[in-house]
Each structure stands twice: as C-alpha cells, then as structure tokens.
TrEMBL record:
Protein name: Glutamine--fructose-6-phosphate aminotransferase [isomerizing]
Enzyme kind, highest EC tier: transferase
Keyword Kinase included in the entry's annotation: no
GO function terms (MF aspect): transaminase activity
Parent sequence residues shown: 245 to 613 of 613
UniProt catalytic activity: D-fructose 6-phosphate + L-glutamine = D-glucosamine 6-phosphate + L-glutamate
Taxonomic source organism: Microbacterium murale
Subcellular location field: Cytoplasm
Quaternary structure and interacting proteins, as annotated: Homodimer.
Protein task: Catalyzes the first step in hexosamine metabolism, converting fructose-6P into glucosamine-6P using glutamine as a nitrogen source.
Amino acid sequence: AAAEKGGWSSFMAKEVAEQPQAVANTILGRVHDGQVVIPELDGLDELFIGINRVIITACGTASYAALVGKYAIEQWARVATDVELAHEFRYRDPVIGDDTLVISISQSGETMDTLMAVKYARERGARTLSICNTQGATIPRESDAVVYTHAGPEVAVASTKAFSAQITALLLLGLHMGRVRQTLTDDSAVAELADLPDKIASVLEKENDHVAQLAGWMADTRSVLFLGRHVGYPIALEGALKLKEISYIHAEGFAAGELKHGPIALIEPGQPVFVIVPSPRHSALIHSKVVSNIQEIRARGARVIVIAEEGDAAVLPFADEVIHIPLAGPMFEPVLAVVPLQIFAMALATAKGLDVDQPRNLAKSVTVE
Ligand code: G6P
C-alpha cells in the first residue's frame, strides 16, 4: 500500500496533489480551434436542443460540483438549471419529461441513490447524460450519453481530484452546450481552460505549507464556518463537508448573503470562519457585498480566514489570514478555491491523529439506498 501512495503520507494527499494532472486529463482532447467539442457527444446535439430545463442530480461532493455546473450551464447554454439531491429527486413527483435533460454526476458511477434517480428520469422520458470517473460503471451504462472525467482512480473516501475534475467536466459541458445551442457569445472561457492545471499547481505550491500550519494551530477547534457567494457558495459547502468527513469537526457552509438571516447568531469571539471572496474584476458589486459580510463577522469577533484573488487589497484590513488564489475567470475560481480547503481538512485531521483515507462510518461508494 505504501508503494501505491507513491511516497505520499495518504491517498488523499496524493490525490490532492494530482489535481493539476486530473484536470488536464479532463480537458484533454476536448478543445478544438478555440471551441469546446466533447467527442463522446458527437452526433448527440439533439440532447441539448429543444430542452427547456436541466436538472443535475448527485449525492455528496458531486452535488456541490453540480451547483457550480448550474451557474455555468445557465450562463453559457441559457437553459434553466436546477440541482437536486438524487434521493430527494426520486421520491417526489418531479415535473420532468422529454424536454428535460437530467445530468447525473458520480465519481464511482455506482451510487445507488443516483442510479435510481437516473432510471426514474429515463422512465419519465427525460434525456439523460452522466458525468462519471469510472469507465463502464452502471450509471453511465444507464444513461443516453456519458462524459468521463478521466481523473484516474480515487482511493481516499473523501473526494478531492474527482471533484475538481467534475467541475471541469461541467464547465466543458456548459461550453459545449452553449456552442450547440448557439447561445455562447464569448469564447474567453474556452481560452482559460488551458491555464487551469497550472493555476491549481500554483495554489498547491504557494499555499500548502501556510494552510497546513493554520490547521495545526486550529487542532482544538470545535466548529468552523464557511461562507461563499455565487460559485463560491458550493465551495463553502464542500469545505465544510471535507472537514466533517475526515476531521469530525462540526462545520457548516452558508451562502454569504444568508448570514444576516440566521447564521450570524453563531458568531462569537474566536469563531473561525473561512470566506471565499470572488474576484472584484468579475463583479465589483458581489465582491463588495462579500467584503461587507467579512466586516460584519469581524466586528463580532470572528477569526476570519479569507480565500481571495492575488492582489485583492480590499480584504486585507479585515482578515486574520489571507490565502491567495491566482486570477481566473468567474467560473474557474471554484476549482482553485477548493484546494486550500482540502489541504486544511487533511492537515487538521492529521493534527488530530486521524486516518484521513478511511474516516469512520463512511464508504467510498454507497451502493445501497
Ligand atoms: C459517498 C462518498 C462521498 C461521495 C458520495 C457520492 O458518500 O463518501 O465522498 O461524494 O458518496 O459518490 P459518487 O461516487 O456518486 O460521486
């Protein structure tokens, strides 16, 4: 087993470090002449034309990738998109039919809840597409089409490289759909894809030791909160899930705008709060709203750890710690912002002496309902 870890202390550490390559593999062969063309979807344009609704269904970490996908598909393919946890979707009477595309996301391709949702969608006449990391798994076999993430085998129970590859696959899919539906007006996002692996590598290189040190200082923490807005919101949820899964610390992710509607009551002096700050270049308005959220929690004594774009000076006066990510397009920030949160959860679990690869009570793939 030690050899399989390739010198890393855990599979999770190895898989976190493999993310630049995993994401590069997801993109490989899918960009041609400045356009995203996914070869597996060749001849399947009818999956994307004449639909008026997309539902993305998944469980766990994959459902947070799905939330990022909602933003990308709505923006680029201009079709209303909702995310449904697979076990919730299946057990009501959803309004779906042949004008609905149901996208499922699953690393293993074997999660029973997700599989049942896909089968149910098909029975109802919906078009189905799966995003999967495991060649030939059951969920892709039950779907009309599949886009593989090609992240390589993921062994650690807590998902890391599969998650960044899932988001990348959703960005590719959103751009592919936008081209097919002729709704994509701006090719700048396609150009950004090529830089993504190097930007992930730069976060790993520049922030690993800083974040690990931070986690070491916080080994006795009993609760950590995560705030994000727009595509940073799913990353706040994922940051909290990683911490729960492997370090057994109470953690919650919130939409930053929701703070004043409840969660701010949790803030007391010393409460650690991670805030994912969107670039001010994308939207000065969204950025300023997140900065004012930071001021609100800081005023109540929170210990604020900010994840912000390099050069974002507006956050510095209010942050106890700043973790930097490189400049990237708005849809690409999640893939970068999640990396320090993965490192944080892993380092904190390690500081507590826990086995990061085999957390208690969890299975890598849940094949029962
Ligand atoms: C389990 C794992 C999670 C994973 C979820 C969905 O709960 O512990 O890490 O996110 O299943 O798995 P899937 O293989 O469908 O992506």
